[in-house]
Specification:
binds zinc ion, seven-stranded mixed beta sheet, alpha/beta, about 300 residues, Metallo-beta-lactamase, Chain A
Length: about 300
């Protein structure tokens, strides 16, 4: 049986197999980048891993209202086996839900806003693992030096920013994962600067080699961003349907793309590619495949 068809529920060694076969970790990579789906990113340098907004449970849309929600512990544990530090851009479900489970499995340190920290505390994460951050902070996350920038989240009805309810007891509803503020992160790893753009940012001059950015903004925003960042490589982020399961339930096969994500890939990502080529000619664009590790150093050099 090919490895990718091994049933995660029955194989004790599945995590190791998946990392070997799908995570495709190669020892000669200097700065490894993996897209985890939704806004999730994993960066790897010298055996240390920094996760940003990892979200594997991918609850369906009807879980977003009226009911209490839980992460898919087994799936998260099987998929994310490593992590030393976790940056949380904001506390919405698709950025925070799985973080307590990942901390449980990996012992990673977590960094986030006041709401993020309070939710982590309520969800049982040890206080020693939780780090409050704010815009302008410079963080030392092992081999990943990080600067925190303010970002503006687009408005979502029923999920507007504000304070958390005074009394919260898990399990929570999706709406109780209320955001306060949103952050973008400039990460320096092995001499490379990677800007993970989590929401609209003012056009400060923030040069970075790699810009990881949502591909749905208006063209003018990219024009200004590219001028301010001067990236060599651009990677679209948070573009797929994060309410579609990662796995085909019937076969347990990996990473089947649902029809919404397929349509976005067919029609909206080419628009993004055209915009990048128009406003930043010569800049590389990589449309990442889920969990496939990319060598950022080689991508920029080659
Ligand atoms: Zn959000």
């Amino acid at each position: 049986m090919p490895n990718h068809l091994i049933d995660i529920r029955t194989s004790f060694f599945y995590t190791e197999i998946r990392y070997r076969e799908h995570m495709d970790i190669q020892d000669n990579i200097r700065v490894g980048y993996r897209w985890l789906g939704a806004a999730g990113v994993a960066l790897r340098v010298d055996g240390q891993t920094l996760l940003i907004d990892p979200y594997i449970s991918r609850l369906p849309w009807h879980h977003m209202f009226f009911r209490c929600i839980q992460p898919n512990r087994q799936l998260v544990g099987d998929t994310i086996g490593i992590g030393n530090h976790i940056l949380v851009s904001h506390s919405h479900v698709d950025h925070l839900l799985d973080v307590p489970v990942i901390v449980d499995y990996t012992g990673a340190e977590v960094y986030g806003s006041q709401n993020t920290c309070r939710l982590l505390n309520i969800l049982g994460v040890s206080a020693s693992k939780i780090h409050l951050i704010g815009a302008g902070n410079e963080l030392s996350c092992g081999l990943f030096k990080t600067v925190v920038y303010p970002a503006r989240h687009y408005p979502i009805p029923f999920f507007m920013p504000g304070n958390l309810d005074a009394h919260l007891h898990p399990p929570l509803t999706a709406r109780q994962y209320r955001m306060d503020v949103c952050f973008s992160f400039l990460i320096e790893a092995d001499g490379m600067r990677i800007l993970v753009d989590s929401g609209r940012r003012k056009f400060q001059h923030v040069p970075a080699d790699v810009l990881i950015i949502n591909p749905f903004y208006r063209a003018g925003y990219y024009q200004k961003q590219f001028k301010a960042v001067q990236p060599k490589l651009v990677i679209p982020n948070h573009w797929d349907n994060f309410m579609a399961a990662l796995f085909d339930k019937k076969s347990q096969n990996s990473y089947s793309q649902d029809w919404v994500s397929a349509l976005i890939a067919r029609f909206l990502l080419p628009r993004f590619r055209r915009i990048v080529q128009t406003y930043s000619p010569g800049v590389k664009i990589i449309i990442p495949q889920l969990f496939r590790e990319i060598d950022l150093s080689a991508s920029i050099a080659g």
